[in-house]
Amino acid sequence: MDKMLKQALLYDFYGELLTEHQKSIYEDFVLNDYSLSEIGEDRNISRQGVYDIIKRCDKLLNGYEEKLHLVQKFLMAKEQVAHIHQLASEMLNSGGDPEKATEYLRQIENISNGILEEM
């Protein structure tokens, strides 16, 4: 996963645990794609100060993920739902074969049970 996407996901899940000051700077850097210099000028702090805050936020957000694994669980569930969608599409396009439909439904049931067990 690319770094900016990972940062955005971590922020989506754990951003509320940051201070307002940290959230504001992190949002500008990750979500609004402002440079360190732009953020520093806007807030009247040094570029290095902005960099330090962003690194601290990255460390905090990654620490939360290491303990809670919410992003990992979300991505796994998303992948499994995509697989369910694929199986449902294949079932609809299988030409009405009852044996194939039953097999697709069994696979969908197994995948959905896995999702429910993770929650």
Which features does this protein show?
mainly alpha; elongated; single chain; about 80% helix; about 0% strand; about 120 residues
Q: How would you describe this structure to a colleague?
A:
With about 120 residues, the chain is mainly α. It has six helices and no strands. α1 packs across α4 and α3 crosses α4. The longest helix has 23 residues.
SSE-based structural type: mainly alpha
Shape: elongated
Rounded average pLDDT: 92
Provide the β-strand percentage band: under 5%
Low-confidence runs: none
The separation of the N and C termini measures 23 Å
Query: Can you summarize the main beta sheet?
Result: none
DSSP strand tally:
0
Helix run count: 6
Q: List the helices and strands in order.
A: HHHHHH
Summarize the amount of helix as a percent range. Answer: over 70%
Gyration radius from CA atoms, angstroms: 21 Å
List the helices and strands and how they pair.
Elements: H1 3-14, H2 20-31, H3 36-43, H4 47-68, H5 70-92, H6 98-118
Please summarize what this structure is.
82% of the residues lie in helices and 0% in strands. It has 119 residues and is an all-alpha fold.
